[in-house]
Amino acid sequence: MANQDPLVVFTPSGKRGRFPVGTPVLTAARQLGVDLDSVCGGRGICSKCQITPSYGEFSKHGVTAKEGALSEWNAVEARYDEKRGLKPGRRLGCQAKVQGDIVIDVPPESQVHRQVVRKAASARVIEMDPATRLYYIEVDEPDMHTPTGDLERVARALRDQWEIEQVTCAFPVLTQLQPVLRKGKWAITVALHRTDASATPQIIAAWPGLHETGLYGLAIDLGSTTVAAHLTNLETGEVVASSGIMNPQIRFGEDLMSRVSYAMMNPGGDMEMTRAVREAINTLAEEIAREAGIATSLILETVFVCNPVMHHLLLGIDPVELGQAPFALATSNHLNLTARDLELTALPASAQIYLLPCIAGHVGADAAAVALSEEPGKSDDLVLIVDVGTNAEILLGNTTRVLACSSPTGPAFEGAQISSGQRAAPGAIEAIRIDPVTKEPRFRVIGCDKWSDEDGFWDETAATGITGICGSGIIEAVAELRIAGLLDPSGLIGSATQTGTDRCFAEGRTNAYLIHDATAEGGPRITVTQGDIRAIQLAKSALYAGARLLMDEMGVDVVDRVVLAGAFGAHISAKHAMVLGMIPDVPLDKVSSAGNAAGTGARIALCNLAARAEIERTVRRITKVETAIEPRFQEHFVAANAIPHATDPFPELGKVVTLPVVGFNTQGDGSDGGRVRRRKRG
Ligand code: FES
Q1: Most exposed of 174, 263, 352, 466 (fewest Cβ within 10 Å)?
Q2: How far does the centroid of ligand 1 lie from the alpha carbon of residue 37, in Å?
Q3: What residues does each domain of the chain span?
Q4: Hey, whose CA ends up nearest to atom 1 of ligand 1?
């Protein structure tokens, strides 16, 4: 390359080099390793290679780009512009040729490794590096004189046109290859999948001509109670539809251990549960594709994150070993499978399935996904990550070490096993405040932004009514009862006499608190009963005890920050969670929400092949702590039963909330029988 050759500078990468006049921009980009996409290999038909040339004086780059620095707009570009429209100033990189010094911007949508914002509130991004990519090829026609198979000529085209060696072909695709080649008149698009960066690529789909209807993947968070899926465009990283359904295995048992027992007690019970969940995933895939207006045949990859019991039942492995020590997994490694292996008939038979690795017998791929999304091992300060669900996954760590455990919280935090509990849906109470003086409640329901004592609330909620309490609502309700002095630290609700309010009423031998009575309009009577308090105490004690166990193992009494993950983690108020003693004491501004971190981890693994390798490495370095056989777990559990805690001080909480000292035990154990005193905690 002579020195007087034109200088080409690419932005945003800053890569630069000199190229002979007449070099296509795509070729220059390839030679410099600039991330510029192409599916058609420079034939001017895919439009993936769009670039924006800039003209003028660029002192930063030491370049003056004059008009005419690129070749004239050509017929291919004109045809594309006429058919599809090119944005003003855009050129096709494979058509525009270098004529003089030039600065060329590669817009995000033309970058293969473009970055996708994960969620509005977070600055973090997912870099696109999908395991499956599209390649357009022109294949030699068969020739009687040099007989070769169609697949061998496809492989040769990939080698000659894309420098991709030694491809293999999934069997279901091979059976369709001949008609596809002939229909495409020997021009086809193939989807090539790699299980890792160095693996042999495999053809997992083929279409006649240029395939233009996209490539999609599903990120599925397979939970004990719900199955949530994000349909993601594998070229752009955009989530095009999200949907969820109930896990039909609930009919075999609400929590994991009852499902394991079902498999133990009923011969063939494991297969019944396997069938149920696979059917549900098929239904979900069809529904979500319909919602997005795409064919299920375009969903070529699925990533699952799930706890170990769900993992085994999805795979068709009897989970019986997970129900007893030493809780042996059939495999803890990641898995690469196909839709056909898992009988996911809604997807193409050759669609690829990736299961994240499990951490241990009780700590699953869902916890691995949280680790991938929240990266505790990259945190300088000590972070406790709690993924709240029917089973809580808990991670504690920093750059030196990461620990993980899972704790059986049960479904109370999701509004199940609560007398007025319900799923988060319009009409459900999601937030509540109880006046400490009048003991009267006011609340907000899903679907209306107003509080119940604001003008317009009753009109706006007339359609849905007030139907029950969801998970975040019950947490707030219990915490507010405690703040208002209606609930004592042991978890007893006071009587009307003890508390001075008729909202507290006797129910059998215990008391309950009335939030809202809609019976006059034919609605429900929404109360918090003593049984509800007990269910929440059990759940929160399990969560706190799991966190404490990890802190013991780490040798610390405090953590620097807490991240609440899980679908409903986003809706939990930090203050109320701490009044309840769900999480260890930290300054309230050190409690943040990560939304559905397991689902985000699944999305990252779906969009980025390197992230799969990273989590496969990371899980090997995570120390697993087994709660089920650890005696200290029981001790922590019992101490955590009090609200907020029997022995652990909560000094940070004490700075913002004054908890009344009350006792409603009338059994003569020395408590003060309801006398209310106030003091500042801490
Ligand atoms: S590379 Fe396909 S249009 Fe340019």
Answers
A1: 174
A2: 8
A3: 7-110, 132-208, 216-355, 378-408+537-655, 412-535
A4: 42
